[in-house]
Each structure stands twice: as structure tokens, then as C-alpha cells.
Amino acid sequence: MSVRTRYVVERVLLAVPTLLAMSIFVFLLIRLVPGDPVRTMLGFRATPQNVATIRHQLHLDEPLLTQYGDWMKGLLHGDLGRDYVSHAPLSELLGSALPVTLELTLLSMGLALAVGVPLGVLAAARPGAPRRLMDGFVIVGVSIPDFWLGTLLVLLFAATLVWLPPSGYTPFTADPLGNLRYMALPVLTLATGEAAYIARTTRGAMDEALGAPFVTFLRAKGLAERSIVFRHALRNASVPIVTVAGIQFGVLLGGAIVIETLFGLPGVGRLTVTAINQRNYTVVQGAVLVIATLFILVNLVTDLLYGWLDPRIDAGGDR
What gap in Å lies between CA 37 and CA 51, rounded to an integer? Predict the structure, then answer.
């Protein structure tokens, strides 16, 4: 087995216990949240007899270990449980909400990379005004909270200029143009801060790469500066950029909860907030499990990309 293949196998195998530990943590955390979901669900009908009956039907009167075992058996068969309130299968609820969250996060990350990487490269390659402008963008992008920026964008583009809708959602398959119009403000809100982080990381990595001895050698050979920057230096700076992008993708998943609520997007974040208000344990548990699983998988993909980009992996060097 080659060094690179062994690296991939190790990373995939390490993800399995991580997923298991995460499932235990999510299961116990939800059970420790104050409030009785049965009493919330029954409302004024929450008599002791009714509460006991519903708790038995939902298996909430069983030991935690038994509940966890039954839950894991259901997960292995694709059964995430049912909504306490609507009694709908949780797989259907998450199946309709997850594409919205994934579209929001993927578009936001794509925009953040498309803006952040060129800005960072430009700031490193051309010190002076471009670098000062990027420094200002980084300070503003990192400092402004998402919910405040989103509110400002709604006031500007929806209330004042009336260019974009303030909230709502249309599936891409039903109306592609309408979908992009509804997603524009949420994506811009999420992407601004991430673009600032990526630009700062790119500039730092490019500064280090452009100051390396191999760049001096390439310049001495008369290689064009554009080729040095984009073909050689950027490739050497790609590892920290990919690492930060993977971490920030997880941040986007968390930020989607606030943004979906602010802009009325029917994603996992908004579903989670509604379930929390209802003390709906199964929905919160399933939604948190899905978000945490996506975060672990994104980090796994980031590790694999790191191994593909870093030549030291083939050499058996430091990983």
C-alpha cells in the first residue's frame, strides 16, 4: 500500500469513531435540555395520565441506553424518528430542508472563495493601495455580525432600492432565476465574513510563498511574474487556504441557522429553531446530527485534499 493510499484509509477510518462519538454527544445533549417535550406537545391536555401515555408511546420512559440503542438501529435503517408535533417522518422533513441549507452554504462558500482568494493574491503580489484596501475589507468583514449585515442589506436592496425580495424561497427546479433572486441577499450576507477570513489567510500564505528561495530563483531565471504568482506561489499556498476553507464551511453551516431565520428560508436552521421553541427533541436531535455529520464529512474531504496537495505525503514526511 502506497503512502498516499494509507493516508486516505487512515483518515476515513478515523472518521468512523468520530461520527460515533458525535452521535452519543448529540443524543445526551438533547436529553439534558430543560423542558418536557410531551407536556409542550399536549399543551392544556397535559394531564398526568396523558403525559404517561405519550411518554410510553414515544419510548421516553425507557432507560437512556435502551433509547440510544433503538435510535442507532433506526439510523442504520435510515429512520431518524418522527416529529413529535406533526408525526411526520423526520427523514422527509430533513429531506426537504437540507437542499436549501446546502444550496445556501455552497453558494456562500463559492462566492467567498471567488472573492477572497483573488483579493489575497492581489494584496500579496502588489503591496500598496491593493493591500490597504484588502486590510480594510478584512477588518469590516470580520467585525460585522451576520444578522446585522443581513438587516442592512435588506434595508438597502429590498426596502430602498427594491431590487431583491427581503425574504422567501423558490426551488431552483421551479424557477431558477427566482431562486437566485431569493438567495442573493442570504448568500451575500454569509459570504462577506468568510471572504474576509479567506482573503487574510491567502495573503499570509502568499506572503510566505513569495518570500521563499524558489521564487527568487524563478525570478533570476527571468520567469514572468504572473506565472510565478499564479502557477508556483499560489500552488504552494493552497494547503492553508484549503484548510481554512474547510473550517469555515463548518462555520457557514452554523451561521445558516441565523440567516435562514432572518430571510425566511425553509432550511435545516429554521427547522431547528422552530423545533427548539416547541421542545421537539426528535427534530432538534436529527437536525443537529445532520449538521454535525456534514461538518465531519467536510473536514474529512479537507484532510483528503490536504494529502493530495501536500507533496510531503508521498515522501512519507510530516503529516
Answer: 10
> What is the percent of the chain with per-residue pLDDT over 70, rounded to a whole number?
94
| 259, 104 Cβ separation under 8 angstroms | yes
Residues found in the chain? 319
- Mean pLDDT for the chain overall: 85
Average the pLDDT over each of 30-34, 159-163, 219-223 and give the range with the smallest value.
30-34
SS3 164: coil
Query: How many Å apart are CA 153 and CA 275, to the nearest integer?
Result: 28
Single out the residue of 44, 53, 187 nearest to residue 115, CA to CA. 187
Quote the pLDDT of residue 311: 61
Write the DSSP assignment of 201-218 as a string of letters.
HHHHHHHHHHTSHHHHHH
Q: What domains lie within the chain, and their CATH numbers?
A: 95-309 (1.10.3720.10)
Residue in 213, 227, 209 with CA at minimum distance from that of residue 309: 209
**5-23: average pLDDT:** 86
CA–CA separation, 106 and 194 (whole Å): 12
Residue 318: the pLDDT is 47
Single-letter amino acid, residue 234 = L
Q: DSSP per residue over 25-41, as a string?
A: HHHHHHHTSSS-HHHHH
The whole model's pTM is what?
A: 0.84
